[in-house]
Write a structure and sequence with these properties.
With about 80 residues, the protein is of the alpha+beta class. The protein has 3 helices and 5 strands. A hairpin with a 2-residue loop joins strand 3 and strand 4. The termini are far apart.
């Protein structure tokens, strides 16, 4: 089980109620399950988000296949508007 921090941006930050928090998880899928448990608004927001793990885009990879290393930083990025 890896430990690290998850950082929330924009609407994800608002829905989470915090800018960042510590986590314990094996995969990104495991982390998403844990952070959205009992947080319906955050669960709604993260469905539209993209993710960076230690600065690398997750892209379309299945979240259950993205293994998290100890000390990882996961960025939760909602779609941004503007030009």
């Amino acid at each position: 089980m890896a430990t690290g921090k998850v950082r929330y941006w924009a609407a994800a930050k608002e829905a989470a109620g915090v800018a960042e928090e510590a986590f314990e998880a094996v995969t990104l899928g495991d982390l998403m399950t844990k952070i959205t448990r009992d947080r319906a608004e955050l669960a709604r927001v993260v469905r539209r988000c993209s993710f960076l793990v230690d600065g690398a885009p997750v892209g379309k990879r299945a979240h259950d296949e993205v293994t998290l290393a100890d000390g990882a930083t996961v960025e939760v990025l909602p779609p941004f508007a503007g030009g």
